[in-house]
Specification:
mainly alpha; elongated
């Protein structure tokens, strides 16, 4: 198996060889690579669509709207957010109860009027 350093050296060699070609040939190679990348992306999308269709046929999907999806999302508080909240609580002890109520409301209904959030609109 090739190491990362060997792969980098190989790529550098290829790039050096390409730079010795005419500008027209370099554009041609760039065009070929661009088409290959697009084809790989198409294939990836096709495979994902096929997988989604198989999941749908096997009844392994949940039907709903964005609101239903938000209900399934679990709030995850990372360490950085927790640090910010701790500092905020020290500065605003009078707002802690309101914050806790808003978080509870958000987990139950992200579009509750008290939160002043906006629904995503289809274009």
């Amino acid at each position: 198996m090739r190491t990362k350093m060997q792969a980098i050296a190989n790529v550098n060699t290829i790039l050096q060889n390409i730079s010795s070609l005419s500008l027209e040939d370099q554009f041609y190679i760039a065009e070929i690579l661009d088409k290959r990348i697009h084809e790989l992306k198409r294939e990836k999308i096709f495979q994902r669509a096929k997988e989604a269709e198989e999941n749908y046929k096997a009844n392994r999907v949940t039907v709903g709207n964005a609101h239903d999806l938000l209900k399934m999302i679990e709030l995850i508080w990372d360490e950085a957010f927790i640090r910010v909240i701790k500092k905020w609580r020290e500065k605003h002890p009078d707002l802690i109860k309101i914050f806790e109520k808003r978080i509870l409301i958000f987990t139950e209904d992200p579009y509750h009027p008290l939160l002043k959030t906006l629904a995503l609109v289809e274009i």
